[in-house]
Amino acid sequence: MTQVTSQSWLQPDWPKQAQQWVNRSLGELDYQIIGSLALIKGWSLGYVYKQKTNKGDVFFKATASLPLFSNESQLCATLYDLFPNAIATTLAYEPRQQWLLTADFGTAFVDTVPLSDWALPFNAFAKLQQRSIQHLDKLIDSGCIQRDIRNLPDQLTAMFADDNITARLPKDMPQSAAQISEVMTKLTQQINALLQLGLPNTLVHSDLHIENIAPNNALATEQASEPFIYFDWSDACISHPFIDGTYVFRMEKTPAKQQIVQAYLSQWQSYADMEALHEAWHLAEGICYAHQAVSYGAMNHILDHDMDLLHAFENAFRRFMVNLLNK
Known about the structure:
By secondary structure, the chain is α+β, with helices and mostly antiparallel strands. It has eleven helices and ten strands. It has helices at residues 16-28, 72-82, 119-132, 136-141, 152-160, 163-166, 177-195, 246-249, 255-265, 274-297, 307-325; strands at 33-43, 46-53, 58-63, 90-94, 99-103, 145-146, 202-204, 213-215, 228-230, 237-239.
């Protein structure tokens, strides 16, 4: 696995170095640069810029180096090689800096779309997860980390013993020693029950929501075998596939939510019938929240610099504790 440097945007001459790399990389591909990089978003977890060229817009992303982040630049290059119609076209990447250049893939969905619009992308993503099973070694070699759900109780136990983390926990969250012990027991039981179904580990996005999905514009030219493009893979890992239900679990119980769940689970019927899959989905909710809590706990050292991340950290731990205590 490639050794990653510190965050690009904390290094001297940023973003001059990035611009030079973009110019050189695109020049080698016979692109003509128009103007300079234009910032779209920058925060503690990464920076995204747009670069105009004679062949259309190109997007540059620098991703943070964090304990539970995959090497997104290297991973996306591999994902594009394996699933070219479901991933943004990778033009160039620099794994040591975690720099990535992709072609414009159109406009992502927005969070104001009807919830029923989530159903087809989740159905298609389940198929992508199943296709990933035969490529797990290659994905791991490209920087996709392994996060087996069986490790979650030990990881969370260590976090609850870390004063630097517990000092940040929301005051209104249940957090007595007895409550933590009860939750860890329930979490272990639910993990063991979920594993009984026998679903394999797969590629997991870990931040799968409608704003990280775009309709595949190549469909207009009948060239696309995949209806959607999935992007923003910094949280990607190899784990239980139902971890990608994180946003769906939190939706209110409505017919639209049931439509999404049904569309997703329908692709797993070679492993179990729908009744068993729905039971597994129910079991996975608390495990999914545990996964998210571990993710944010691992960001503890940067939370002081980003209030949005701090709030996400608090919500992740609160959601995990409350859900498991109520089971």
